[in-house]
């Protein structure tokens, strides 16, 4: 149970990026927060006021927490989405660490202006990173006795995988288990409501 006086303000750019898993956590937990989306023009003035010179940052009743994965873990623990024991929490961390490798390789493509170069970057990204990633995660689900990546209920790991896969929806049909997973998570009422109402952005 959250304290009645506890408030949350999430600050990031107007994009999904490194803040979207946090937004999905808030959505699934049905917890209200202020979704502050700054422009590129506003960033130079805000940057020196952040702990490490980047966003997202989370303001929790006046206290500041930085670093996307620290924010995610803090909220996942608070919202009971960090597994049911220490082993599951560690396996969730394992997936988050692996997804970070994928996410870093996605960055140049995400931030490239639309055009021939972006298309070429996408082809390389799919061949070298996304296809192996999807093959590996398809196998994880094939080997699992659960529809979730860790344990028998939704966790931070599932929301993080869902976030990455959302960028490559047209490819998941080639992977039956992943496709089933994306549909399952995407049809959960609170997740579906958030995805339907969130701003359409470039990244």
Automatic annotation (TrEMBL):
Any matching Pfam family: GST_N
Domain GST C-terminal: 85-203
GO biological process: glutathione metabolic process
Enzymatic reactions: RX + glutathione = an S-substituted glutathione + a halide anion + H(+)
GO molecular function: glutathione peroxidase activity; glutathione transferase activity
PANTHER family from the UniProt entry: GLUTATHIONE S-TRANSFERASE
Protein name: Glutathione S-transferase 1
């Amino acid at each position: 149970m959250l304290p009645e006086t506890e408030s949350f303000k999430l600050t990031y750019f107007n994009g999904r990026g490194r803040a979207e898993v946090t937004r999905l956590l808030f959505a699934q937990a049905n917890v209200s927060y202020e979704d502050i989306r700054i422009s590129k023009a506003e960033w130079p003035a805000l940057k020196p006021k952040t702990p490490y010179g980047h966003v997202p940052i989370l303001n929790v009743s006046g206290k500041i927490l930085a670093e996307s994965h620290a924010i995610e873990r803090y909220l996942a623990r608070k919202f009971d989405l960090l597994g049911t024991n220490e082993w599951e929490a560690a396996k969730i961390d394992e997936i988050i660490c692996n997804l970070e490798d994928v996410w870093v390789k996605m960055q140049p493509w995400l931030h490239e202006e639309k055009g021939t170069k972006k298309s070429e970057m996408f082809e390389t990204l799919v061949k070298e990173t996304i296809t192996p990633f999807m093959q590996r995660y398809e196998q994880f689900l094939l080997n699992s006795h659960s529809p979730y990546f860790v344990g028998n209920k939704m966790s931070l790991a599932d929301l993080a995988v869902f976030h990455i896969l959302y960028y490559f929806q047209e490819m998941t049909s080639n992977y039956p288990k992943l496709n089933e997973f994306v549909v399952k998570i995407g049809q959960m009422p609170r997740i579906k409501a958030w995805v339907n109402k969130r701003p359409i952005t470039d990244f």
